[in-house]
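Same chain as my last thread, 438 residues:
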Amino acid sequence: MLWIQMTIVLLAIFLGARLQGISLGIMGGLGLAILAFIFQVKPTDPPTEVLMIVTAVVTASSTLEAAGGLRYLTTLAERFIRRYPHRITFLSPLIVYLFTLLGGTGHTLYAILPVIADVAKDVGVRPSRPLSMAVIAAQQAVLASPISAPIALVVGLFAPYGIGLIDILKVCVPATFGGVLLATLVVNKWGKELHEDPAYLRRVQGAQQKAEAQTVKTDPVPSTAKRSVTLFALGITIVMLCGVWKGLRPSWEIDGTRQPMAMSVVIEIMMLSIAALIVLLCKLDPKEIVKSNVFSSGIQAVIAILGISWLGDTFITTNKEEILVAVQAQITQKPWQFSLLLFLMSILLVSQTATIRAVIPLGIALGLPAPALLAALPAVNGLFFIPNYPTLLAAISLDSTGTTRVGKFVLNHSFMIPGLVATTTAVVIAGALVKLFF
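reply #2:
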């Protein structure tokens, strides 16, 4: 029965990934329906808390974009990149990492990808280098953001073991940042130079490069853009301070003890509040929020998490005993192998949040100490492995030179080497930091 159910889960993931868009979520719902109505599997509770966090962060980020704040930040980034164009391979991932860390979502990447593709081609830098690293940096930085859904979920899971937000960030931030830096050094010399690349030369010979020299045009930045950025930064600062000092959070007497507000709730309330303040103080038309790119991408992520996370969590919870028997001896003897399980599941579930929700409780059930689980956490960044993630597809479509591509054998794509280097390095650094701090 385990293998039949696993086949259904894998088929739902395969179909969802192949059809793209919100298909991952709706196919996850179909798979859950088959398990529940045909195999009488009891579904677990839907990932309500995760969905609330993602929705709140997406709402705040979408409001920031609608108010011109994201365009303002992108303009600053573009000026910086164009000032040092030959350093674009190093600057792009650093800027994207910062954007994602502050915004809590990698979907902010879409605003800067066209700039990266345009500048790289103009200066003769192989665009696959900065584009691939920008995509990988966005995925890595999600685990460094105090307002991201994966980190908020991890905070809740690790709270009973005395590990708080700052403990998590002081491991995840340097680990993921170190992974991005090393991967950038590797990718900087990866592949042929642009003027030597066969795919690009074929495009030149075929006169398909007519639109390549176009400059990305953007609308004027609204006067309220700086104000919206300031308000958004204020919200992130308050979240950080609440994570450091529990006394800043409201608390209530529960069963004889004083219990502070959960960090997940803090994030949800602050993100919605910042969105409201941006609307009020920047005199923003709320209808513009739902038209933003971040909102569209974010809602797709919400639906994907709802379907595929719920399906994966139900499958693992229902078959936990059999799975524990299968992996317990190996993983308890060699805890580092738990990172391989996280990496594999992130490839299948195509979501850091869904992977954490499904697999970290399994690690707790195996008896692995919380610090060991924290050390393995960066391994959830396996989203790049199969080239079907939206940010990967966006980078490929924006590279008019053809250097950012999916290879003949599918897995030999432009994101594989930087993704493997960054994720492996991040796990190694996280392991070292956990030994140092815990």
